[in-house]
Automatic annotation (TrEMBL), chain A:
It holds the Pfam family Alg6_Alg8. It is a multi-pass membrane protein. It comes from the Eukaryota. The chain crosses the membrane at residues 81-99, 120-136, 166-192, 212-237, 313-332, 339-356, 409-427, 439-459, 465-486. This is Alpha-1,3-glucosyltransferase. GO terms for cellular component: endoplasmic reticulum membrane. Its main location: endoplasmic reticulum. GO terms for biological process: protein N-linked glycosylation. Pathway: Protein modification; protein glycosylation. Belongs to the ALG6/ALG8 glucosyltransferase family. Keywords: Endoplasmic reticulum, Glycosyltransferase, Membrane, Transferase, Transmembrane, Transmembrane helix. One of its GO terms (molecular function) is dolichyl pyrophosphate Glc1Man9GlcNAc2 alpha-1,3-glucosyltransferase activity. It is found in: Endoplasmic reticulum membrane.
From TrEMBL, chain B:
It is an enzyme of class 2 (transferase). Its main location: endoplasmic reticulum. Pathway: Protein modification; protein glycosylation. InterPro entries: Glyco_trans_ALG6/ALG8 (IPR004856). It is found in: Endoplasmic reticulum membrane. Its EC number is 2.4.1.-. Belongs to the ALG6/ALG8 glucosyltransferase family. Dolichyl pyrophosphate Man9GlcNAc2 alpha-1,3-glucosyltransferase that operates in the biosynthetic pathway of dolichol-linked oligosaccharides, the glycan precursors employed in protein asparagine (N)-glycosylation. The assembly of dolichol-linked oligosaccharides begins on the cytosolic side of the endoplasmic reticulum membrane and finishes in its lumen. The sequential addition of sugars to dolichol pyrophosphate produces dolichol-linked oligosaccharides containing fourteen sugars, including two GlcNAcs, nine mannoses and three glucoses. Residues 1-22 form the signal peptide. This is Alpha-1,3-glucosyltransferase.
Amino acid sequence: MWHVPEPESSHSTDFEVHRNWLAITHSLPISQWYYEATSEWTLDYPPFFAWFEYALSHVAKYFDEEMLNVHNLNYNSSKTILFQRFSVIFTDALFVYAVHECCKCIDGKKASKELTEKPKFILSVLLLWNFGLLIVDHIHFQYNGFLFGLMLLSIARLFQKRHVEGAFLFAVLLHLKHIYLYVAPAYGVYLLRSHCFTANKPDGSVRWNSFSYARFISLGLIVFLVSALSLGPFLALNQLPQVFSRLFPFKRGLCHAYWAPNFWALYSALDKVLSVIGLKLKLLDPNKIPKASMTSGLVQQFQHTVLPSVTPLATLLCTLIAIAPSIFCLWFKPQGPRGFLRCLILCALSSFMFGWHVHEKAILLAVLPMSLLSVGKARDASIFLILTTAGHYSLFPLLFTAPELPIKILLMLLFTTYSISSLKTLFRKEKPLFNWMETFYLLGLGPLEVFCEFVFPFTSWKLKYSFLPLLLTSAYCAVGIAYAWFKLYLSALTDPPAGKTRKQ
Amino acid sequence: MEKWYLMTTVVLIGLTVRWTVSLNSYSGAGKPPMFGDYEAQRHWQEITFNLPVKQWYFNSSDNNLLYWGLDYPPLTAYHSLLCAYVAKIINPDWIALHTSRGYESEAHKLFMRATVLIADLLIYIPAVVLYCCCLKEMSSKKKVANALCILLYPGLILIDYGHFQYNSVSLGFALWGVLGVSCHWDVLGSLAFCLALNYKQMELYHSLPFFCFLLGKCFKKGLKGKGFVLLIKLACTVVASFIVCWLPFFSEKEQTLQVLRRLFPVDRGLFEDKVANLWCSLSVFLKIKDILPRHTQLIISFCFTFLSLLPACIKLTLQPCPKAFRFSLVTCALSFFLFSFHVHEKSILLVSLPVCLVLSEIPFMSTWFLLVSTFSMLPLLLKDDLLMPTVVTVMAFFIACATSFSIFEKTSEEELQLKSFSISVRKYLPCFTFLPRIIQHLFLMSVITMVLLTLMTVTLDPPQKYPDLFSVLVCFVSFLKLLFFLVYFNIVIMWDFKNGRNQKKVN
């Protein structure tokens, strides 16, 4: 992974967030970690991540001691930045290892003699040079490479039938970043169904008397031990409620300042359009509409004007309803690790579509595992391409400064060109990957980008409707992502169940 | 995968690397009063926009020639004028006369970097892509790999997008010239080369091979018939292009002379700063500058230069073929670099371009040369704070070349094009079979010295008595290696074409 440090181009808040956490874990005792609030970027990841930052802070003190002072808000000396950048690159080693393990799980049935046309090679490029990961980790700064490495490694272990290791890795992952709760149902159901029940009846349904208590207990023990290690100290200090309130801040709005391209973005966009129409047609009373939603910015959405407002409980219900069919599929029609992977992706996508205060970076949770499926079947490849192109484009607003504009466009073009052309070549013997509608949609991203970044800033609408580019981006990508989600569901539900002879 | 997808991917990779390097520091950043090349280019935009043409090259109260006076031919001035017009639309403060001196801002840096990228995209990159597509006897994958390696050459990227210059324009035009002349579009090729020459006078390093090759072609076609017609056409093209470019400066004799004086500052001495050529390296032991008078220095450097490049040029005139042409470009430019007057370290790029062109024929030696050429500019790059991009781009380039051409497997005598030479030597010395092994060992030693010197320069402080120790060491070591390459390339030309008619590959 090449990388060039950029001193001025992006000091996103994430730098300060992680510097603050290094400071908190290094200079304060454990009892203060989840209470410390000098900076607005309080610790809101589970305890294992705090321990990870603690370990990093011991290396950090050789670079620049000042960054470990809690009161040095926004401290960003060049040594600090150097250390942080290197820590991301260093921890990415785990991601590289995980990609290596995943490539071993891909069978090379379609392999041609050319190295660049082998599915393993294509998969490793799609994962290692994933545009979203590059942007979020290396330009924007987060530790997602390391975390996704753990997730991909646990998936690889499940493919290799090393279930206990996979469960352990996932448990550790959960306690590093709780966003992976989105996919926990898939893990739970799969491990229960395919690991604890050791045999199936001939028609594929569960054989109840083959339940292995030993396996169930071993899994349970692993999860319990990991959780105890993580939450134990805070349980002893009676701080669990505080920890949970930091981890799950429901006081935030339905959508944050830039709407992630999910169902609620379309919902809110529709609401805004209807309210504008309603005002023009004098059906609505301007006084009753909250001022915030009519002013220029895209704001954290608390209330809708025309359509009913959405509560956290409603989103939870929607998410559960969306996940349910795939979970039932996993239980009643197990297809081995591949089925598990599909269910995992569907869980991640459904939670993205219907979750509360979803960040657009969460699309990577679905995109990266989907890469594994994309080199297997042509249908999965086309779904993957739509999902990933729309998903990556929706990350554009994360980089908004002028020096980053050519980089994000070039990297996006690079990844998109490579992924489309390599997958097209891999599946050239089957029918074309895209129908006319999908091609049109993908091509439409170009004019959209030109309009939002180059034309709009020079028009007169900039002042009155300054939120318009973000709204358009969000809505356009949401359409693509919803379409991919729908198609994936269809393929999951209509796939025939695996027989005993199918090698997975 | 289809060739066009691959080629697009490669071009996008090249552009991405270029723009990422350009986010780093530039020459003279934050260093008043003189700043660096970046300020020079901005200053030229200011001068060409605000002053009439007649005053561009003259010293006046508005145009102080000691503060980055124009010292490139007119085409550079016209290019600066074009950029200045764009700058005027965006922010006139950037080019306001006098007040914009030393102007530095994020937006301005973005603008300047964008001008380099656009010029590169319009001129250099299409030339590289077209050149690689026209290569014969190669699979399309190899052509694309070749394009990738050429586009990733670190020296050009670091100087153009880091230090800040417009070398890609002149090198791009020269490459169009090479392309035209190799594909038998001689008039267009020579037009392109004249444009290159009118952009930077250093392209004179390439002029002799062009001249000899075209002359050789005319002779081959017969001076009494088609050859003569070609000669006339070429002469007219050259004269016409020069007239068009220099038109505003031909109005008075004084104008032309002044421009020439600015382009060829013979008063400036045999060398300036530390550069990896003979005179600078010799001055470590023998202070030539002080011993010999100025005009003797000129004559000596002239003699050395021309004596070293004469054999290749004569051979090219007698047996003109594109392969000999490419190798002669290498040797002539290298001779000029090593022995000529007042050479800048950046002029190594003029040698690197032809070496990039022969990358597909001798991958091992070319990769080695290109690494050495980047290393020879190390003091300059370190001065501009470009250590990290240097390391990253050099590693990326090395990995790209090593995997595309599997260079470490191509070190046999045949692969190094030294077969005829070895056979001739074995007539007198039957045991002369160890050449490839010597070369491999030399490569290893060379890489170790380069890495060691880089580490030393970065981590250690030089002793008080010799503050320039590391730069001088870098230059001296690079000079020795470049001398080795001069000998090598000359051997390849002289011996390889001895059996010219027997060779199957005639391209």
